[in-house]
């Protein structure tokens, strides 16, 4: 299994409604892209203050590395990036690990 962790720095002008739409778009990928076991996403709620400006996160669990590799160029994923991520996000940080 691959854990795909994505952290976002949302644009300062991003509204609560845009965040809800972003979340819905991200979660839809589980129904559209083969090999995704689970997706969770949401705004940072940590009290530690160690997020370095990253204020939204997503975890995607893939069945294996091949599924993750197929997801990256997948047309549905690329559509989510274009429609929901680019308009609302300044920076992205990605880290994957195998379990």
Description:
There is one protein chain. By secondary structure, the chain is of the alpha+beta class. It has a single domain, classed as Alpha-Beta Plaits, CATH 3.30.70.100. Helices cover 35% and strands 34% of the residues. It has three helices and four strands. A four-stranded antiparallel beta sheet has the order 2-3-1-4. Helix 1 (16-32) runs antiparallel to helix 3. The longest helix is centred in the first third of the chain and has 17 residues, at 16-32.
Mean pLDDT: 97
The tally of structural domains comes to 1
Q: Regions with pLDDT < 50 over 5+ consecutive residues?
A: none
Number of helices: 3
Structural class: alpha+beta
Tell me which oligomeric state these chains represent: single chain
Determine the N-to-C terminus distance: 5 Å
Major β-sheet profile: 4 strands, antiparallel
Overall geometric form: globular
- What percentage of the residues does DSSP assign to strands (E)? 25-35%
CATH structural fold name: Alpha-Beta Plaits
Write a compact overview of the structure shown.
The chain is built from three helices and four strands; from the N terminus they run E-H-E-E-H-H-E. It is of the alpha+beta class.
Structure keywords:
99 residues; alpha+beta; Alpha-Beta Plaits; 3 helices; 4 strands; 34% strand; globular
Topology:
Layout: E1 2-10, H1 16-32, E2 36-43, E3 56-62, H2 65-71, H3 75-85, E4 89-98
Antiparallel strand pairs: 1-3, 1-4, 2-3
């Amino acid at each position: 299994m691959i854990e795909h962790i994505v952290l976002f720095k949302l644009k300062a002008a991003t509204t609560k409604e845009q965040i809800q739409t972003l979340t819905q778009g991200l979660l839809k990928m589980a129904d559209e892209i083969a090999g995704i076991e689970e997706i969770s996403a949401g705004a940072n709620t940590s009290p530690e203050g160690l997020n370095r400006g990253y204020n939204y996160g997503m975890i995607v669990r893939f069945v294996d590395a091949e599924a993750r590799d197929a997801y990256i160029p997948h047309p549905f994923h690329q559509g989510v990036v274009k429609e929901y991520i680019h308009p609302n996000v300044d920076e992205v940080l990605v880290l994957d690990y195998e379990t």
